[in-house]
Amino acid sequence: MATTAITADQVKKLRDQTGAGMMDCKAALTEANGNVEDANTILRKRGLASAAKKAGRAMSEGSIGNRLSADRSTGILVEVDCESDFVARTDDFQQLVQHVLNEIEKRGDAASGNSDAWLKDPNGPVHKHVAAAIAKLGENIAVPRFVRYAGQGYVGQYIHLGGKIGVQVEFGGVTPAISSREELTRLVKEIAMQVAAASPTYVSREAVPADVLDKEKSIYRAQMESSGKPAHVLDKIVEGKLGSFYQQVVLPDQASIREPKMTVAQVLDAAGKALGAAVTVTRFARLKVGEPAA
Questions:
Q1: Which of 50, 57, 113, 275 has a Cα at 20 to 30 A from 213?
Q2: What single string gives the DSSP state of each residue in 101-170?
């Protein structure tokens, strides 16, 4: 009898359901002739899928954990998801969030590389904390992603909606002389709240990938195909529409949520003049509980 070929997608699906190791999943799938549900049952019977009956349930609740070093040079955001708001509010769940933050902090600079594999490693520290919490709280729990910034600038954070949205922003140009100024504190909070509310995608126009721009331009051109306008006129119209696109997705181009007549770039410029230093946003991250990663 021919052996059923086991695909990487099947192994991933089974691992996501059970939390069991890759080789265990592959062996179970081989035994089950590629049937994921049967393989799930095999793993559970072998005691290799303690969280199997919880897996697959929707996780739309949870919390964004955050940690910031005293000197603002290092910041961590982590998303921890669960099924119900009731569990998300328990001390046990909040303790899990702190345990995960501790593990990311301990991993240090290595936490920036291949973080997805590290989070899901069945023998890794995060997975062990999560498995223990699942056993205690009786809900499906996962740590889908985290963000860690370190040593490249001044880090600010903002937590919104009782921990459902977390924002981390890194600023360049912050010198020791201005790091304790009230104007900087206000600016950091304002920019972080901007990211939380307006959900920009890019830190600058230059950061927008060429293929994204090409796609936008092709859409605008298609919209005007039958207009009969000459090519040079169409080019100007496309550039104008691109400006509107930038205003939606590029942080400095967005209208300020505090002062809609100003752009974020103008807010940064005004703050820089007040501080006597050119302060820029070098990168940012926005995590929302239950939202698919970009």
A1: 113
A2: HHHHHHHGGGGGSSHHHHHH-TTSHHHHHHHHHHHHH-S--EEEEEEEEESSSEEEEEEEGGGTEEEEEE
Report the distance separating Cα 107 and Cα 101, nearest Å: 10
In angstroms, rounded to a whole number, what is the distance separating the alpha carbons of residues 209 and 162? 33
**Amino acid (1-letter code) at residue 36:** V
Cα 176 from Cα 190, distance rounded (Å) = 20
Q: What is the pTM of this model?
A: 0.77
CATH 3.30.40.10 fits 57-151, yes or no: no
Bridge partners (DSSP) of residue 167 are 158, 286
Strands 61-68 and 280-288: unpaired
Q: Mean pLDDT for each 10-residue chunk of the chain (294 residues)? A: 79 82 88 89 69 58 97 96 94 98 91 77 92 91 94 96 94 96 97 97 97 88 78 83 93 96 98 96 96 72
CA distance 97 to 62: 10
Q: How far apart are CA 125 and CA 133, in angstroms?
A: 13
Domain covering 1-56, topology? Helicase, Ruva Protein; domain 3 (1.10.8)
